[in-house]
Design a protein that fits this description.
Blueprint lengths: L9 E6 L12 E8 L5 E7 L10 E3 L5 E4 L1
Antiparallel strand pairs: 1-2, 1-5, 2-3, 3-4
Length: about 70
């Protein structure tokens, strides 16, 4: 089975569910870390400007954050 994401993949945010300070839909970045745990899949991202200062990891579970590969 091929991994869902690899370090270096480019992604675009479809939905970020962080209730306090979400990354807006359409923001882009490069995958720096991928944790494909079956229950909590976490994606580390080096965000492009103007979000480059952010360190928010996305959590891909059920109705959680969603991204698309570029």
């Amino acid at each position: 089975m091929e991994p869902e994401f690899s370090v270096g993949d480019r992604i675009k945010v479809v939905l970020c569910t962080d209730e306090h300070d979400p990354i807006p839909a359409g923001a882009t970045g490069t995958v720096t870390h991928w944790n494909p745990h079956p229950l909590v899949r976490q994606l580390g991202i080096a965000w492009d400007a103007p979000h480059a200062h952010r360190r928010l990891m996305l959590t891909l579970v059920g109705d959680g954050d969603r991204v698309a590969r570029l």
